Every structure is written in C-alpha cells, then in structure tokens.
Amino acid sequence: MTAVKGETRTRLLDTALGLFTVHGVEGTSLQMIADALGVTKAAVYYHFRTKDEITEAVAQPALDELVALLDHAATINRPGPRADYVIDGFVDLVVRNRVLVAVLCSDPGIIRAIDRILHGEESVMTRLPAMLVGPDADEGAQVSSHVALAGIAMAGGSPALAAMDDETLRRHLVDAMRRQLGRPRRRDTPTP
Amino acid sequence: MTAVKGETRTRLLDTALGLFTVHGVEGTSLQMIADALGVTKAAVYYHFRTKDEITEAVAQPALDELVALLDHAATINRPGPRADYVIDGFVDLVVRNRVLVAVLCSDPGIIRAIDRILHGEESVMTRLPAMLVGPDADEGAQVSSHVALAGIAMAGGSPALAAMDDETLRRHLVDAMRRQLGRPRRRDTPTP
DNA sequence: GTCTATACAACGATAGAC
DNA sequence: GTCTATCGTTGTATAGAC
Description:
10 helices, 2 domains, mainly alpha
C-alpha cells in the first residue's frame, strides 16, 4: 500500500515548480515545500540531498530537450535548413515550457543549476548561437543571435504575453526570431 | 577627519555591486559586504535598513535614467522619430550599464526591487513597448517589441559579448533592435 | 552621527532514532 | 521513509560606546 516508486519524488517536484513560479527559487524555503506536502523538512532531504538538487531536477527535462535539439541540429550540414530547424525547435521548446522558462530566465539559482547540469561539456550558450549563424560569423551576426535567443526566451516567459495562446505565440515568436536573424518568412508550417 | 558625507554610503554601494556581479544578490550576504568594507554587519545596517534597500539603491540611478528616457519620449508626437529616440536611448543605457544590467536581468532580488522603485506608477514594462510600437499595436508588433527589449538587455549584459568594446556593441545592438522592429538602418549617428 | 556588541527567528543542512 | 534534534549562517533588530 506504499506509494508507487518515485511518486513522492514527482509530487515534490510538481510542488516545488509551483512554489518557484510564485515565490521564485530564493523565495521558496524547504519548509514551504515540506508544509505543502504535509511532511517535515528532513523528509524532503531524504529525496534530495540539497536545495540545488531540487532546482536542477526541476529544470532537467527542458534542458535535456535543448541538448537533444542541438545534437540533432549538428547533424544537419547546410546552414540554412539547420538554422530553420533550430529556430522552430527552440521556439517550440520555449512555448511548451513557458512557466518554467519564466522562472528559469530570472533566477540565478536556476542559472547556476543549468551550468551544473551541462557538466563541463561545451556550453549550450556557446553551441546555440553557433548553430544559428555559424561558429565564425561576423560580430554583427553574433550579436544578432544573442539578441534573438535571449529575446525569444524572455519574451516567451513574460507575464505580459502570458494571456496569448500557445499557437499564436509560437507563430509570432518564429516570425520575430527569423526577422532578427535575417531569414525570410516562412509560408509553410514544418512538420516536426 | 571624519569621512565626507555620503562617502561611506557610496563606497558601500560600489562594494555591493561588485559582489553582486560575482555572486549574485542572493549569494551576497551582509557579512560579505561588511567584511569587504572592514566593518561589522551592524554598521552596514546603519546606512541601509534592509538588504532590499541596498539592492534598490544599486539599481536606482539606471532606473531613473530609464524613466527620464520614457518621459522625454512621451513628448515626441510622431511615432517614427519617437521609436528612433527610444532605440538609441535604450541601447545607450544598456551599454553604459552593462555590468549592472547583467546582474539586473538575472536576479529576482533586483527584479523585485525594480518593481518597488517604480512605486505603483504605470509600469516601465508597459510603457516601454508602447513607446516603440504604439499602445494599440497588433499582436505581432507587441511580441516583436518584447523580443527586442528583452533581447537587447540580456545580450548587452551577456558574458559572451563582454569583450566587445562599448562603441562596437552599441552599433550592433542598435542595428539588431532596428531590424527586430522593422525600422530601416540608419546611416548617420545621432547626436544625443 | 558612526560604529561595536549582542541577540533572535528562520534558513539550509546533518546525524541518528523509529 | 519519516521523524526529532541540532548545527552554523543568514537577515533583522536593539542597546549602548565613542
């Protein structure tokens, strides 16, 4: 009659993400998480050794997707189609994880966790721009890629656009990102 | 031989910004600030009543500039020149405060402080996009303005572009922002 | 006015009993 | 798996020395 394996852990992560969204990572204490679950602080510590570990576990799935996106993009040789693929994939990732991205982008706790998850391997923050404009692009293109990536991520998580439905937001973000990177507007919607 | 009025306060804010830059706001304790100044924690408390007050004081000058920029932009009637003015002013503000902006954009402590500073008055985050694309712009233009603003701010503070000198970064950011907003490239550099 | 000394509740974290 | 008890440190607060 005991809980399914991992059930408590999953419930804990759901609770944590909910609290992170409202109070931020820093503003969420282990006590709050424990209270919300009806257990003590020490019980939370049984499932996760540190608060950072909880933060990492919350961000993990989205980051895995991002790494997978980059890995697949690396197999596309022609720069144009590769950029198209990254644009569509990145926007889709951001839109599907809007709530998480909002927390993710505005919290140094999560940002440090991200650095830890991408354990040493060539940073995503280096690979992403390279996939869009090439590794040896001129300064202007590099700045443009950073503006595009940061802008899409932040705008996607912005409370100001929270009311917009996923499909509409996705369309506008793709348009904005293509415009920023100087790629022509698409007519067709790709089949992912 | 006592210190000049406000001298300790200024030194404290400089020290705080330096520590915020390295460890983040959350990661910087009052003890660290006090130690760096060679005083006790309570001495810090004499100059500022709370940690939040320190955070606010660090962000204050840049935010005052931003509000002034918006106030002046509001006096420009024609949308085109007004957008041009905001683009130039915003990029300039970001570039001149690169270090601060890097902390500012990635720390909920500062973000909360910002909300507090802009005490109730119509939010900057609402006024800024309106100055760029008008208050009743279509969805696409609104998304575009958010992408542009967030992108410029984040890219400006990004460690990846920290090596770029101010003049070059400013030029590329203005180009990127104009492209995102669909405004033609400028030949002349404006005299601010 | 400017600081030190001291105290306090809440935090993240650990050890060990049930 | 969950608990109690405890640790050092944090932000905050007050009393009082110079």
